[in-house]
Amino acid sequence: MTDGKINVTVWNEFWHEQTSDTVKKIYPDGIHKAIGEGLLQEGSFNVNYATLDMPEHGLTEEVLKQTDVLFWWGHCKHGDVKDEIVDRVQKRVQEGMGLICLHSAHFSKIFRRMLGTTCSLKWREIGERERIWNIEPAHPITSGIGEYIELPHCEMYGERFDIPTPDKTIFISWYEGGEVFRSGVTFERGYGRIFYFSPGHETFPIYYDEKIRRILCNAAKWAAPRIQREISCPCVEPLENIQKKN
């Protein structure tokens, strides 16, 4: 952290916004900028941006060293992310950096690497209504959210969601078509905290919603490092004298 603020890097493929007129109209500066705008408005964050087409995908050793919390939005270019960058991000999470994976980032290399499962799910894209139920009202991520959020048009994600049992399931979504989904879940890996949050399809203006922005701000504060320490496996001397046995 610098100047008392949490240093956030928002990573985005930045592909749909350049190839789809529909997405470009909703997010003219990119999904990453819409997410960052919400964080900056809150006032507790310094925000840096990184995209797939930047050198080292914008996630150099120096950038990650200065990052307290990394947001990740990906969809159709998961396979283009270099494995050495995934290794680099994984190491930083294990050392204490927070990781927030959004929407289709459930299939990102980094999320599947951290969880060790396929992270597969059901999906349907017809713009149906989503009701996001807050089932952990005392959790810091849900502060100021209320009992539920209703979004008029969303992509449906449905169970079974192939993830390990979360440390906490914070949100459960119900969709107009009848499915339900664990739409907000947390994990810890090493010293780092991970939050997955599913709302955020590129053809709907979800990242402008004030309560969605509140959740992302809350999540960044929750995921900020409590400790940053390199993971090691040292051979150590005993603390006490040990009697040698014949």
Describe this structure in words.
The protein is globular, with a radius of gyration of 19 Å. The protein starts with 5 loop residues before the first strand and ends in a 23-residue tail after the last helix. The longest helix is centred in the last third of the chain and has 14 residues, at 210-223. Helix 3 crosses helix 7 and helix 5 (83-94) packs across helix 6. The protein has 7 helices and 9 strands, in the order βαααβαβαβαβββββα. With 246 residues, the protein is an alpha/beta fold. The chain has a 9-stranded mixed β-sheet.
Q: Which overall shape is indicated by the principal axes computed on the Cα atoms?
A: globular
The residue-averaged pLDDT reads: 96
Number of strand segments: 9
Given the helix and strand composition, which structural class is it? alpha/beta
List keywords for this structure.
single chain; 246 residues; alpha/beta; 7 helices; globular
In short:
The protein is built from seven helices and nine strands. With 246 residues, the protein is α/β, with parallel strands linked by helices. The longest helix has 14 residues, at 210-223.
Describe the protein's topology.
Layout (H helix, E strand, L loop, with lengths): L5 E7 L3 H4 L1 H6 L4 H12 L2 E7 L9 H5 L3 E5 L9 H12 L3 E5 L6 H7 L6 E13 L13 E11 L9 E8 L4 E10 L2 E6 L12 H14 L23
Helix pairs in contact: 3-7, 5-6
